[in-house]
Write a structure and sequence with these properties.
This protein has three helices and seven strands. By secondary structure, the chain is α+β, with helices and mostly antiparallel strands. A hairpin with a 4-residue loop joins strand 3 and strand 4 (84-88). Helix 1 (15-38) runs antiparallel to helix 2 (44-65). It is elongated. The two termini are 22 Å apart.
Length: 152
């Protein structure tokens, strides 16, 4: 099983989705800004509001694109849209990606579940499944290693 484990540290992120979101953000910003500059009947304040709206829309898409899951020797960092959470390996009880789930869910030792948006089957389903399996294998290997250390 150790041959299947990725080398740490490893970052999981939805690469194709990220590329689409970043490209769309830039395209929206450029398009709306060009329209604001080309419409002669707009005043300076109106042009500025167009550019501000374009920046706001692009910013939301950039926030959506920053999601990731980073696994290293000591644990996992989950970066979702609005926040980041650091977990020790022992806190992760189970890694779930069931059919129809929008992303991976981490079942935690405190009885809660944490969505990990960095692994999502949206555009690249097979990659998400492979990433979920890799994270699951890492979590199982790390929890087994911790159990062995506690017993020894």
């Amino acid at each position: 099983m150790s041959s299947e484990l990725p080398t740490l540290p490893v970052t999981f992120r939805p690469s194709r989705t990220r590329a689409v979101l970043l490209t769309a953000g830039v395209a929206i910003f450029v398009t709306i800004t060009v329209i604001a500059l080309l419409l002669e009947e707009l005043g300076p304040g109106e042009r500025l509001s167009f550019v501000f709206t374009a920046a706001l829309l692009a910013g939301v898409l950039f926030l959506l694109a920053r999601v990731k899951v980073v696994a290293d020797e000591s644990g996992v960092t989950v970066q979702n849209i609005a926040g980041r959470r650091r977990l020790e390996w022992a806190e992760i009880i189970q890694v779930n990606l069931r059919p129809g789930d929008p992303w991976v869910f981490l079942n935690l030792s405190d009885g809660t579940s944490l969505p990990a948006l960095g692994i999502q089957p949206g555009i690249a389903k097979q990659q998400a499944i492979a990433d979920a399996k890799a994270l699951r294998a890492l979590a199982e290997a790390r929890s087994t290693a911790r159990s062995d250390e506690d017993e020894g």
